Amino acid sequence: MNFDITVDRTKTNSVKWNKGAIESISANPDALPFWVADMDFAPEPHIQAKAKEMADSGVYGYPVFDKFSSIAASWLEKKHGWNVDSAHVLYTMGLLHGIALAIDLFTNVGDKILVPSPTYRPFRELCLRSDRIMHDYELGYRSGEFYLDRERFDAMASESKMILFCSPHNPSGLVFSRDDLKFVLETAKKYDIPVVSDEIHADLVHTGVDHLPMGKANENIGAKCITYLAPSKTFNVAGEHSAIAIFSDEEMEKTFKKKQSALWLTSPGFLIGELTQVAYQDGLDYNLELCSYLKGNADFIREFLKRNCPEIVLANGNASFVTFLDCSAIYDKIEKKVLSNPERYKGGAGGGILSRFFGVEAGIAMNDGTWFGEQYKDFVRINYGTSRALVQDALEKIAKAVKAL
């Protein structure tokens, strides 16, 4: 694959490139999109061929996916060295749906759910809309690195009824160590609470970095654990909803399957079912090349900032294609400029100080850190799932805006 070539999505139904959506966070409809987590690369060739084949057939009737679980289980073995009985690989209609159902089934109204922050915003919404309390556990942070503070984690877990984890972590790009995962699972077992692990970014851990699925880490621990993965980020099919869930606890699995059956949500739709199968069956080479390219992008950002804009620091950035940029060294200057020029920075109500500044001054749209928690106002999240040339162009514009402060 040549990941230096991207797809022109400006005239497609893409929220990432939608001018109204871009303006809503950056106060500039013409800002280039480096925000929402999907990529601009051409599809994996087998996926593209399958989609064309399906379109050419002209028939979209009832499908049958009797090999879906076995193909997904084979992917877990190839990609992560995790040997899972396919009978226990469950389809869910998207990862957030699967997590929402788990929250509904395995916690009660008013329960506290421990969620590490900075937090992927829909996790906050899942807790709120389910009438649960998000127990906001802040990851430790120093010198551009987020990390698991075990003492505080244990104290907060003792007051919680579920741990909603994100591994690798979004938005920091933190890949947790084996010891960290062991600690999380042993803590959950000690307090007899389930761990729900969102691993939607797991397949895009960068070359040279190891990811351990929560369920695999749990094999000799025996905590209650659900591990969710999905093809959506891995193969850039986020517009279709498909995910898999692997349970470590048989009773929880039975409860989950029964509820899914009652809701008539036990199998994928025609299009995403076919695309998921072909992706997991034939997409490994593409995936490995992509992981290497994304690592190159992250390394490029890190080195570019050190040389040309040391006021900004790349945080972690060892997985997927989104991560935080730490702007704390210049936040006060930027805040003063934005607040003293309200007309210039008007709009961008869905963003914050930093996203509006970079949207207007650099023409680059990024998610404001406050989207992941009000305490993260010093950060923006950048999406580098695009060509190296476009990443370089964005960084040059960001550096120029900072130098003009």
Oligomeric description of these chains: single chain
CATH H-level name of the largest domain... which superfamily?
Type I PLP-dependent aspartate aminotransferase-like (Major domain)
Spatial arrangement of strands, main beta sheet: 2-10-9-8-7-3-4
Proper CATH architecture of the largest domain = 3-Layer(aba) Sandwich
Order of helices and strands: HEHHEHEHEEEHEHEHEHEHHHEEHHEEEH
Q: Helix/strand-derived class?
A: alpha/beta
Strand content: 5-15%
State the distance separating the first and last CA atoms: 40 Å
- Major beta sheet, specifics? 7 strands, mixed
Count of structural domains: 2
Q: How helix-rich are the residues, as a percent range?
A: 40-55%
Number of helices: 15
Task: Kindly summarize this structure in a few lines.
The chain is an alpha/beta fold.
Write the layout of secondary structure elements.
Layout: H1 19-26, E1 32-33, H2 45-57, H3 68-80, E2 89-92, H4 95-106, E3 112-117, H5 121-129, E4 133-138, E5 140-142, E6 145-147, H6 150-157, E7 162-166, H7 178-191, E8 195-198, H8 214-217, E9 225-229, H9 231-234, E10 243-247, H10 250-263, H11 270-282, H12 284-308, E11 313-314, E12 322-326, H13 331-340, H14 353-362, E13 364-365, E14 367-368, E15 379-383, H15 388-403
Parallel strand pairs: 1-13, 3-4, 3-7, 7-8, 8-9
Antiparallel strand pairs: 2-10, 5-6, 9-10, 11-12, 12-15, 14-15
Helix pairs in contact: 2-11, 3-11, 4-5, 4-10, 6-7, 12-15, 13-14
